[in-house]
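Re: weekly structure request thread

Next one in the queue (295 aa):
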Amino acid sequence: MLAVRVKVTVAKEEFIKLLNQGVNSWNSWRASDPDMRGIDLSEIQLEGLDLTGIDLSMVNLRGAKFHDVNLSSANLRGADLSKADLKGIDLKSSNLGTAHLSMVCLSEADLSQANLSGADLRGSNLRLAKLDLADLSTTKLNMSSLNGASMIGTILIGANLSRAELREANLAGTDFSRANLSEADLSHCNLNVSTLVGTDLIGATLVDIDLSESNLTRANLIGANLYRGNLCGCDLIGADLRGANCSEAYFIGADLSRADLSRAEFTSANLSKANFSGANTETTDFQGAIMPDVW
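Done, posted below.
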């Protein structure tokens, strides 16, 4: 029987009775009326439960608290989880598409292979969370914290991560195509072999980042800080690096053809074997840089 603690209203009592009958009973009831709206479980407290595969789509779970709860493969599509405490929760392969998750605590949660497309995670805490192979396309992550998160192979196409914190996150193989990472902090991140085609990185902090072998075609890096970054073998065709700080960075074998490097600073950078065909370098600072034999 589910151990449910909640500030009870008359309507909530009926929902709690259904929950107490178990996941199968709850899901059967939901399936009998799939258009059901207005289920209010706000501020509910659940502890030590296995709710694998439960259907909580469109449910009001605002301010809920979950401790040691298994919600893997759960359907939470369109649910309101604003200000909920989901620290360390198991949400593997769950469906959180278009869910409201602003100001949520998901630190150390397991969201591997979860669907979060179109979800609102603005201002949320995802520190040390696992998001490997998750779908976060068009997700709102403005001003969220993802420091130390594991996001290997995650899809973030068109996502908004402006002013987000991703320090020391593992983002290898991630797809940030057309995402907004303006003023985001990606210091010390691993973005090896990632896709950032047309990505907005204006004013982003990319200190000590590993972007080796990544695709940054047409990326906007105006004013970005790439100090000591590893961009070896990167595709930067048509990228905008105006005013970027690339001091002591590594661009060995990078393709900078048709890139705009106006006012960019490459002091003491390693640019050996880089391709500058058609690049704008008229006002670029290459003082102390290692240049390609032909450029």
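The chain has a mean pLDDT of 94. Strands lie at 4-5, 45-47, 65-67.
Next request, please.
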